[in-house]
Amino acid sequence: MKLFKQLVLSSVIGVASLASAQTVKIVGLVELSGTGSTSGTNFDNGIKLAVKEINAAGGILGKRVDYVSYDTQSNPGVAKGLTDKAVDEGAYVVMGPVFSGSIMVSMASTKRAEIPNFTGGEAAAITQQGNPYVFRTSFTQSTAMPKIANYIKDKVKAKTVDVVYVNNDFGKGGRDLIIKALEARSIKVGADISSEPGQVDFSSVVVKAKQSNADALFAYTNEEESARLLRELKKQGYKKPVIGETVLTSQKVIELAGDAANGAIAHVGLTADAPQAGVKKFDAAFQKEYNSRSDHNGLKGYIGMYTVKAVTEKLGKFDSKAFAAAMKNISLSAKTYPGLLLDISYDENGDLDRESYLTKVVNGKQVVSEILPPANKK
Fold this sequence. Notes:
single chain; alpha/beta; five-stranded parallel sheet; 12 helices; about 45% helix
């Protein structure tokens, strides 16, 4: 009987080892609850859609992707603990967190373990730490803000701009860089207004903006807060241009703000409303899978997962350290790797570059008004 149990145990261990050898572990650290739930859920769903497609097509180098996601609860401390868990589980690549404050805390663990870590965070400081294992799925604020400032100067022709931002790493980083970009173009900042994560009442914020009487307002807050700000602006009869970056014209904000979102303008790194064929195909697949439209975070998760596939296949092996080295100054073509949707490149710091868009909310829908070339395109 004892011999039989040993044989059974050996068989189970052997099957588990074989299964492990035939799969590659990817761990998602995502905001599935808390203030970042909209962003994290979309990011996670984008990854899961990509994983489903990749596995259906034979996996990566013949291995099936084993993807598991954990909820950071939008809490940097929780994110840090879950990163250690992902390291212990032998993750080949870690996807997330999305929020800048969380990745700033958690990425030290993946760095020590030499595991590539993709993030949706936009704070400029993320890739200014000299961490060779962290890579963005979104533009850095340093890339996005000059594009917005150019639009404000050349198209809006504003001389003064109020700035409303959320008081966290994401918001403060964006606030500092948009002010720098505006001042470099001789545009003055009127009211400099801080708001809090999860803030419900924006009446005093709008009162300050109206009293400032600037030519336009720049908004840089999270999805729910952006919607509340837009509703309050409409309620108080604010008539000046309202401009933002990515979040302001996102699907979630449009749903929450209703007709108050109409007229909002934003520079968007990714949007499911983009006219490119690959993006349209993604949009249809996402809606079929989840019965809802993706925001920019879903696209970031999807493209990020396909980037893992593309770089691994270029290497021809699963080697986390070699993967991180290969990401430096890499250029990937959507023609060669269709899952990327757009041509993409990374610099030596882990910052990406690709086409982006100017968008406006018209009759409750985000409309792409202009396709902007990659920032470093000559």
